[in-house]
Amino acid sequence: MSNSDRFPIQNTQLQSQSQQSIKRHNTARYYAHRVRESFTARVTKFLCAILLSLLLVAGIVSFILWLSLRPHRPRFHLIELSVPGLAQPSGFEDTQITFKLTASNPNQHIGIYYDSMVGSVYYRNQRIGSTPLLRPLYQEPKTTSIVYGTFDAATLTVNSKSWNEFMGDRKGGSVLFRLDITSAIRFKVSTWDSKHHILHVSCEVAVGPDGTILPAWLNKRCPVYFS
Questions:
Q1: Which residues, in sequence order, are CB contacts of 147 under 8 Å at separation 6+?
Q2: Which of 104, 119, 124, 114 is nearest to 152 (CA)?
Q3: Which end of the chain is more exposed for a tag (fewer CB within 10 A), N or C?
Q4: What pTM was computed for the model?
Q5: Would the pLDDT of 141 be above 60?
Q6: What's the DSSP call for residue 95?
Q7: What 3-state DSSP class applies to 159?
């Protein structure tokens, strides 16, 4: 038998052993790769969980701080208004309107600066007087201040026609006025001051025939808004 008729048994065995060795090697690399991927995935998930937890805690803390430091509007209540000359037929010659309000700061940790304040009085939606009020004032948290003023002959524009209209309402049992307060305010949080806000207070009030405030309007809370 010639050499060409012999089977390459030895070569086949060597090839089989080589393929098995390569297969084992590839299998080991595959599992090592899977282990590395699994470890990387676990580390990534762990870091994401920590980051999300930190973001959640930061959000909760920020929300609590916002609730505690969010400025609340000051509260105004009208406690007095009188028109002393209303009981006199010719009282318009020396007419006076006096008033008094309470201004309360309801904030726990926020102060309020009142840098300027002006009071105006209206009758039938017509302004009949205006006057500056208060000097610049800082109001501590959770405190109440008194705002008062007088409209006199120098600041009122009441003539005989207006007075006759007063008298006509007086005969009906009451005269209705509107007291408006306008103030430039700033909020103070620790060492930080806000920008100026224009505060408006609007108090409707009725006085009786004797010129004093009617009980139904006493200590009435006045609407407040900003512009």
A1: 76, 100, 101, 102, 103, 117, 119, 133, 134, 181
A2: 119
A3: N
A4: 0.71
A5: yes
A6: -
A7: coil
